[in-house]
Structures are given as structure tokens and as C-alpha cells.
Fold this sequence. Notes:
The chain starts with a helix and ends with a helix. By secondary structure, the protein is mainly alpha-helical. The chain has helices at residues 2-19, 25-44, 50-74, 78-102. The protein is globular. Helix 1 runs parallel beside helix 3.
Amino acid sequence: xxxxxxxxxxxxxxxxxxxxxxxxxxxxxxxxxxxxxxxxxxxxxxxxxxxxxxxxxxxxxxxxxxxxxxxxxxxxxxxxxxxxxxxxxxxxxxxxxxxxxxx
Length: 103
């Protein structure tokens, strides 16, 4: 799960940089797609157990938030994109806390 959170944080930083116009749109699109692919690939390698069911749900939520932020930013709705990024950040923090408490 830590690798998944690392890729999610990368997407978050890229999207945040796009809002600030610090990276071009083409780079953002390519990099965010790469992050989401890596998240999905790692999740697909998890064994099908009750313990990994939570991780799979987390992956869906993370990729959903990344997609929502990317879509809003791509359509020029920067405030909404920023709100999705903030929600993504909070969710990542919750998952890190869960990892720390649960092992």
C-alpha cells in the first residue's frame, strides 16, 4: 500500500503543479496517466484476500479522486480541481495513518 500511496502523492504533486501552471498540460496528462497505471498495476498484483480488500477499495478511491482533479483542472475549473487535490491529500493521510496503526 505504501507504493500505491507514493504514486498517488506523485499524481497529487503533478496536479498541484499544473494548477500553478508550473508544468505543461501534455506533461500533466502523461504523468497522471502513468501514476494511475502504476497504482492499478500494483493493486492487480495483490492477492485476493480479506486483508487486501481494503487496499483495493482504497485504490478505487485514490484513482477516482485523481481522475476528478485531473478532469476539473483540464477543463479550467481550478478551484474544483484544488478541492479534489485537498480531498486526495486527506485520504492519503488517512490511509497512511491506517497503515501505521494496523501494520
